[in-house]
Amino acid sequence: MTTNPEEQALAERQLCGLVNGLAQQIADHVRRRAATLGLTAPQATALRELAGPSTMRELAERMSCEPSNATFVVDKLEKQQLIERRPHPTDRRAKQLVLTPQGVELRERLLALLEAESPLAGLDDEERATLQGLLVRAVAHPAKGAPPARG
């Protein structure tokens, strides 16, 4: 089915609006849930992404931010005794970030809060998998001249 350029532009704008709207709903959801635990949204994101030992660079990639921004967040979590920096087992120059027992407990509470009333709650497992697959494909093929997607 061929559509004219104006119809294509309208469809693209509508799709971009929906993706933006969903991203904003998710960001608002994370921010609200994080606040109930005394965390900022970036702190909650870091805790969510720390499923196991990680370097700062790995965490920054998963948080879709620069390592310096992740360092700032990790410093705050370390002050709260939720994360420890430990020597990396194979790279003497790197540190591993590891959740403390307090951090593990708070992460579990956070994950439960994030799942409750999630903007994606209306989708079943198959629909979530389909959406994820489509978004992965879209992100993997950026527009010509666009910088590669982070994340």
UniProtKB/TrEMBL annotation:
Q: Which InterPro entries match?
A: HTH_MarR-typ (IPR000835), MarR/SlyA-like (IPR039422), WH-like_DNA-bd_sf (IPR036388), WH_DNA-bd_sf (IPR036390)
Q: Which domain of life is it from?
A: Bacteria
The HTH marR-type domain covers 12-140
> SMART domains given for it?
HTH_MARR
Q: Which UniProt keywords apply?
A: DNA-binding, Transcription, Transcription regulation
Kindly list any coiled-coil regions of this protein: none
**Family annotation (PANTHER family):** TRANSCRIPTIONAL REGULATOR SLYA (PTHR33164:SF64), TRANSCRIPTIONAL REGULATOR, MARR FAMILY (PTHR33164)
What's the name of the protein?
MarR family transcriptional regulator
